[in-house]
Amino acid sequence: MKRPARAWLLPLSVLVALLLGLLPLPPGLQPFRPYWLALVVAYWVIEDHDRAGLGLAFAVGLIGDLAFGGLLGEQALRLTVMAFILQRFRNQLRFFPIAQQALAIGGLLLNDRVVAAAIHVALGEPQLPWMYWLAPVLGMLLWAPLYVLLDAIGRSRRAR
Fold it and tell me: Are 13 and 150 in contact (CB under 8 A)?
């Protein structure tokens, strides 16, 4: 029997991810900013495929594009590509240990940088400096705490 998830947790986690993405950082730390939206969307696609999928990824990406002021549709495309790959391998990923999941998420975040670079090349936009390619490593390291936090919040509310 499937336990119902709290309906408020998904939009709240997306809102927090947007706010973390908008949080001002010193210029030296800017390249290391994790892609919070991708981490949150990845969690929901893996854990609640009934409510989270390509549509959620696209909608969250458009909201991210509007909030961050980038190219309209860039984050939507990037998150949709990531969600598509996650949906394809969701059954395997769910049974990976958390460290192995983190490696897979790191690979997806690196793939996200490749997709972003391809979009920039196709549109003649300037490329991000090489330091921005280190952010997927930080995202990979943050996967385990984020996964455990969201899972604990969801489980504690479901147990009541």
Answer: yes
Q: Which alpha helices (DSSP H) does 23-97 contain, by range?
A: 36-47, 54-68, 74-88, 90-93
Spatial CB neighbours of 81, under 8 Å, sequence gap ≥ 6? 111, 112, 115
Residue boundaries of the structural domains of the chain? 9-24+31-158
pTM for this model (two decimals): 0.90
10 Å CB burial of residue 109 (0-12, 13-18, 19+) is buried
DSSP output for 3-38: PPPPTTHHHHHHHHHHHHHHS---TTTGGG---HHH
Instruction: Give percent above pLDDT 70 in the chain.
Output: 94
| Residues 3-37: tens digit of each pLDDT | 455 778 999 999 999 999 999 999 999 999 999 99
Q: What are the tens digits of pLDDT across the range 65-85?
A: 999 988 899 999 999 999 999
Tokens of 39: 């981490």
Name the helix (H) or strand (E) containing 121: helix 98-123
